[in-house]
Amino acid sequence: MNDSGSDLDFDGNFNKEPWNDCKYYSDEEFKEINMVGAFSVIHFNCRSHFPNFSVIVVSETWLDNEKGSYVEIEGYELFTLNRNKKKGGGVALYVDINLRCKSSDKKTIIIDGVMECISVEIAIEGTKPIIVSCLYRTPGSCLNTFNQEVGSLFANLNKVHIVCGDFNIDLLNPHDNLQISNFITTMYSNNLLPLILKPTRITTTTATLIDNVFTNEISRQITAGLLVNDISDHLPVFSVFHQIVHYAQNPETITQKLVRHGKPEALAAHKADLSAQTWDEVFCTEDPNLAYDAFLSKVTKLYDKHCPLKPYITENKIKIKKPWITYGIVKACKKKNHLYRIYLKQRTKSAEERYKTYKNKLINIIRMNKKITIINY
């Protein structure tokens, strides 16, 4: 089962930049990114959460002033900007409580029927203050008005600025609409460059790049990409700024251990190397104990060659256990994600139907198992 996100590709991508290797990441590939201590942001358009990032950015929250307390995340400070008159829309920022931050009122604005933008300023030792903004543009709103407001809002930036959001502007077709081209020009003129270059919303008939992370800080090492995850009909987009130190890690909160990385290609090379051995030192030894020692020494030496032990650093975070999520359900979730990747790659009605049918059955099983677990608790 190939669960790589790298096999997803589409006819249209935004301008490829030499400093930005934006790509799709499966859950397994994303786990390989070393985020310990690095400043990181993730944005998605939905009412769910993705922990372990420095800042979690959510657009189209559909919150009001009463619902805010119900969507708080332990370990994060919540900032929200909700619509006053109409339903829908809304933006939110979750900032790691280990970071010193405050609201940035000058970069926060709401224009009914056009956009909402909320910003916070984060102080990190050793770097300029960082402003993180979450912006949501109302679909079908006046692009000319939006471009003017964005141009004024992000002008004269003298700090590190990261703008995440659902812009509802397809960057894959900038020449089809003058106002889309003007939006790109507006962002570029304020030194804000996009980190996401591939489609973020994919259906059987369309693939559009409407969610993004813009920044004026491109001189640092950055890992940016899209998570192949069906948490929403928009793929989550993220960026990790490796040279911006998030906060000093407490030695008690991290663990370093040695792990063997037995990737398929490494195991195949190991198997080939074993097949090429003559094993003379094993067969020519009369003492079975010495023969076994020679055999084990040879196998171990080749295994260390192809699958060496490498240091792996993890954060010691308390995991909230959900006893109704069994090992079988975890395997089913992986299969569901695999079917979702197949759907994104093939973009056919049959692939979509297989994925949705399996997903709905899995949801029902999880709900039933949760109900039974709570009743028997």
CATH structural fold name of the largest domain = Deoxyribonuclease I, Chain A
* Helical/strand content category: alpha+beta
Radius of gyration: 25 Å
| Biggest pleated-sheet summary | 7 strands, mixed
Give me the number of helical elements. Answer: 8
| Residue windows where pLDDT falls under 50 for at least 5 positions | none
Strand content: 25-35%
Task: Provide the residue-averaged pLDDT.
Answer: 84
Spatial order of the strands forming the largest sheet:
1-15-16-2-3-5-4
Specify the overall morphology. globular
Q: Mind telling me the CATH class of the largest domain?
A: Alpha Beta
Report the end-to-end length measured between terminal Cα atoms.
36 Å
Order of helices and strands, N to C? EHEEEEEEEEHEHEEEEEEEHHHEHH
Please identify, by name, the CATH architecture of the largest domain: 4-Layer Sandwich
Quick one: how many beta strands? 18
Number of domains: 3
Q: What's the CATH superfamily of the largest domain, by name?
A: Endonuclease/exonuclease/phosphatase
Helical proportion? Answer: 25-40%
